[in-house]
Write a structure and sequence with these properties.
Blueprint: H1 4-7, E1 18-19, H2 26-29, E2 35-37, E3 42-46, H3 49-52, E4 63-65, E5 93-103, E6 111-116, E7 123-127, E8 130-135, E9 142-145, E10 157-165, E11 183-188, E12 191-205, E13 209-220, E14 226-236, E15 239-250, E16 254-265, E17 278-286, E18 289-298, E19 303-306, E20 310-313, E21 316-317, E22 320-325, H4 338-351, E23 355-358, H5 365-374, E24 377-381, H6 399-414, E25 420-427, H7 435-451, E26 457-461, E27 465-466, H8 472-477, E28 482-483, E29 495-498, H9 507-510, E30 516-522, E31 539-540, E32 564-565, H10 572-581, E33 585-591, H11 624-632, E34 638-641, E35 651-658, E36 663-668, E37 671-676, E38 685-690, E39 695-702, E40 705-713, E41 720-725, E42 729-730, E43 737-745, E44 758-764, E45 767-773, E46 787-789, E47 794-801, E48 806-814, E49 817-826
Parallel strand pairs: 1-5, 22-23, 22-33, 23-24, 24-25, 25-26, 26-29, 29-30, 30-33, 31-32, 42-49
Antiparallel strand pairs: 2-11, 3-4, 3-5, 5-10, 6-9, 6-11, 7-8, 7-10, 12-13, 13-16, 14-15, 14-17, 17-18, 19-20, 20-21, 27-28, 34-35, 35-38, 36-37, 36-39, 39-40, 41-43, 43-47, 44-46, 44-48, 45-47, 48-49
């Protein structure tokens, strides 16, 4: 326990933030947030339990940093880590954060609160020695009012946060450790809109108009009754659309929820293709003076999940083409960064993805904000376990005390997001097979419907049809099918399938009254840039989920042909073929969009990150990315692989993903080796040819006319480095990032596909290198270093801006290779 007597002895290390949000006129306040960032200049100490004994004092050694922060990603990979290889073989521990800050004297009559968007895990908070509380769940945001404990004016305040992630394992994947999401200070009048205090729905939507229901919870923390006016104005971009006004009387020290109805004429509807958003600005006036302003972003859209037609959005049938995502950001760990999330979503959008499942926990608010803006159909998921644990120290230990509060907070926080179309109350819950699970599901569903009746409820069941999926056809012929108790309980609005793609086509027979969603699919495995000699054999690795994998490939690699799957999953092509075939199948969420740290199926140590991703840990697409792009987008696609550096005479399989064409012809050094066309439900074509160095050229044609041409050339010896930034101009705000791809090329500029040189990085200017990665699931090099070993000729380095504008000059060097420098401008 923290030693409060010791706190008085801790010296103030630095002057902090002055929190000043005095009331201003309406024009001055328009569109300004009442909360400010509280991320900068924290002090951090990672506990050494042998010395510190779970306390801090005057002799404690601190270092200065900004949050969001993940201390686990800074550590070394450890085979003996209590988190295990499932947790990425990175250690947790116990950490302390503290920060000094000032609060303006004029704010002494106001209400001040501190909001944490997420702390992993078991956080406890003190302000000026006063204990505020504990929150075990690492993924949900929470707020403490700190008004009674503050010093105002020139006297400093001190906040201390204890984060205990020492009991391991507590997660099946890499969690990260620390204050890994944003922190905010919020200052309001004593009469104000409460935390997550608005709820906006659009129950009736037509082309002519949309009704907008606005529920607003207002808190009166004055000791006297107050008469006030509430005006809610709806804007589209910066243009006023409409407004509604209501006069209210609030009792002293009471909350009141008011309801307002607005009508938007000729509404611009939100969709995955055109994610149009509106903003509701709620202003509270007291004695003709605006004392509080609260913004809510929302979308106007009409949707339903139909038993026969799948997902209908604004009257149009839309197939959900989604992916599951864990919360870590690869080499950045779990410390949230808006640009890093945006980059992931951009890469996925380019592939044709229109859906995100937040597996298996409430996401960072920034992810949902970006999904609103970019057009993703989100499944917002609450829990990976209920009362029955999956890991020794996981959330099941906190379930009884905390699950209701955590779920309510998630619903209140997230329910205005236009991108959210369904709630998932659990993933692969062990209790799904018994009556206990049904009772818990009823409770969770009732809570969910209490706070949001506009979205259906589902759960990721494995599978909803309890059957031997290897004998699925025989089972159905005999009609010997039993229903998962949770699926058959009637609690859920959508039947969520985790895997079991062989059963999808029988959904209407098994669940004639409940629509379908594939909550989790596929689990195909690949290592970017590695290819087995024979590509048309399907491999199931491991043999069973509960048996250690024996065998595999040298170096714990997996073929990047779409030929390796888990025994519970499928290849990427297999599940998509089923989903695309039937209208009643609303869509799918593939496991996973990106590789993530931990859970390195099918291998164990020394592998430390996953093989499931369509995109690797560094953000480089694997080949199957282009299969989805050819199926999920209108872009014209022709992608041939693998590389063209092999042993003389070696037989090599060449695959092509293509669309908008009838055929593809392949040429080797100018000589045709055959024309291939997709037959039936094929999603790729293949040639098997002996290797000769030179040039492979693929030509796609439609009606005899050339559509696209693509070439792959044999690379010579690695000669030089090439740096390419995703953005060459970034903001000088200490947060923005430039993701720089490093390619190892031969002297002619051809990518050297087998190069694995160690690359050293240096940076000049007001910025820093915050991450390096090659996407290699077996690499034990630090993500936080200034060097990294490339994989398959590629590496990534992430540059973060400082707080001053200017040039950032990044240089990459490797022994025997010509160095490269790139300039990034921060402004």
């Amino acid at each position: 326990m923290i030693q409060l007597t010791s706190l008085k002895k801790i010296g103030l290390l630095f002057a902090g933030l002055a929190v000043m949000t005095a009331c201003k006129s309406s024009s001055d306040q328009k569109f300004k947030n009442r909360k400010v960032s509280f991320n900068s200049d924290w002090s951090f100490h990672l506990n050494d339990s042998l010395k510190d004994k779970d306390t801090i004092g005057a002799s404690t050694q601190w270092r200065i940093l900004d949050v969001p922060h993940d201390w686990s990603i800074e550590g070394k990979f450890d085979e003996k880590s209590p988190a295990g290889y499932g947790g990425g073989s990175l250690n947790g521990g116990l950490g302390w954060y503290k920060k000094t800050f000032k609060v303006a004297a004029e704010d002494s009559t106001k209400i001040t609160s501190i909001t944490f968007d997420g702390v992993y895990r078991n956080s406890e908070v003190w302000v000026n020695g006063h204990y505020l509380g504990k929150r075990p769940n690492g993924y949900i945001g929470f707020q403490y009012e700190i008004t009674p404990y503050l010093n105002y004016g020139e006297k400093n305040n001190e906040i201390i946060v204890k984060v205990d992630n020492s009991k391991q394992p507590n997660s099946r994947w890499y969690s990260g450790s620390g204050i890994f999401r944003n922190v905010w200070i919020e200052t309001t009048d004593k009469l104000h809109v409460g935390q997550w205090g608005t709820y906006i729905t659009t129950p009736k939507v037509t082309a002519e108009n949309a009704s907008v229901n606005i529920e607003t919870t207002i808190k009166n923390q004055y000791s006297a009754e107050k008469k006030a006016t509430v005006i809610t104005t709806i804007f589209k971009d910066d243009t006023k659309v409409t407004s509604v006004t209501q006069n209210i009387t609030l009792n002293a020290n009471a909350n009141q929820t008011i309801k307002q109805l607005a009508v938007v004429e000729n509404p611009v509807l939100w969709s995955d293709e055109k994610p149009e958003l509106y903003t509701a600005v709620t202003e509270i006036s007291l004695d003709d003076k605006i004392i509080d302003q609260y913004k809510t972003t929302f979308g106007i859209r009409d949707f339903k999940f139909d038993l026969n037609k799948g997902f209908i959005l604004n009257g149009k049938q839309v197939k959900i083409k989604g992916v599951c995502m864990h919360h870590d950001l690869g080499p950045l760990g779990s410390a949230i960064n808006t640009r890093a999330i945006e980059r992931q979503l951009e890469i996925l959008k380019e592939m044709g993805v229109n859906g995100i499942r937040t597996s298996h926990n409430p996401p960072a608010p920034e992810l949902l904000q970006l999904c609103d803006k970019m057009g993703f159909i989100v499944m917002d998921e609450a829990f990976d376990m209920w009362k029955q644990a999956k890991s020794k120290y996981d959330y099941a230990n906190d379930w009884d005390k905390w699950h209701k509060q955590d779920l309510i907070d998630q619903l209140l926080r997230d329910r205005n997001h236009a991108s959210i179309f369904m709630w998932s109350i659990g993933n692969e819950i062990p209790e799904q097979w018994n009556e206990t699970g049904i009772e818990i599901a009823k409770e969770l569903a009732a809570i969910t419907r209490q706070y949001d009746k506009t979205r259906p409820i589902t759960a990721g069941m494995n599978p909803p049809v309890n059957m031997n999926i290897d004998a699925v056809t025989l089972q159905f012929e005999k009609k010997n099918v039993s229903i998962n108790p949770l699926a058959g309980s009637g609690v859920l609005d959508l039947i969520g399938y985790n895997y079991a793609h062989q059963t999808f086509e029988h959904h209407l027979k098994n669940f004639p009254n409940t629509p379908f969603i594939a909550t989790e699919t596929t689990s195909g495995l690949q290592t970017r840039g590695y290819y087995d000699a024979v590509s048309d054999t399907i491999k199931k690795w491991p043999v069973s989920w509960d048996k250690k994998f024996e065998g595999g490939n040298p170096g714990n690699t997996v073929s990047a042909y779409d030929q390796v799957q888990t025994p519970w999953g499928s290849t990427h092509e297999a599940t998509w073929k089923v989903i695309k075939k039937h209208d009643f199948l609303a869509g799918m969420y593939v496991w996973t969009g990106f590789d993530y740290i931990g859970e390195p199926t099918p291998y164990e140590w020394p592998s430390v990150s996953s093989y499931f991703g369509i995109v690797d840990l560094a953000g480089f697409p694997k080949d199957v990315y282009y299969m989805y792009q050819s199926e999920w987008t209108n872009k014209t696609v022709l992608h041939i692989f693998p590389h063209w550096n092999w042993k003389a005479g070696q037989t090599v399989d060449i695959w092509a993903y293509y669309n908008n064409a009838d055929e593809v012809e392949l040429f080797l050094n100018g000589k045709s080796v055959g024309i291939r066309s997709k037959k039936g439900d094929d999603l790729h074509v293949m040639w098997r040819i002996p290797y000769q160095p030179g040039t492979l050229k693929a030509v796609s044609r439609k009606d005899g006319k050339v559509v696209l041409e693509k070439e792959i050339k044999t690379a010579g010896n690695p000669s030089k480095l090439k740096l390419t930034a995703d953005r060459s101009t970034i903001k000088a705000d200490k947060n923005d990032l430039s993701f720089v791809t490093v390619d190892i090329l031969d002297e002619k500029g051809i990518l050297a596909p087998n190069a694995n040189n160690e690359i050293n990085f240096s940076l000049k200017g007001n910025g820093k290198i915050v991450g390096v990665s090659s996407g290699d699931p077996v690499s034990h090099e630090s993500f936080k270093g200034n060097k990294h070993t490339a994989m398959a000729g590629k590496c990534l380095v992430i540059v973060q801006s400082g707080d001053k504008s200017g040039r950032l000059e990044l240089t990459a060097k490797a022994n025997g290779l010509k160095q490269s420098t790139i300039v990034i401008t921060a402004e």
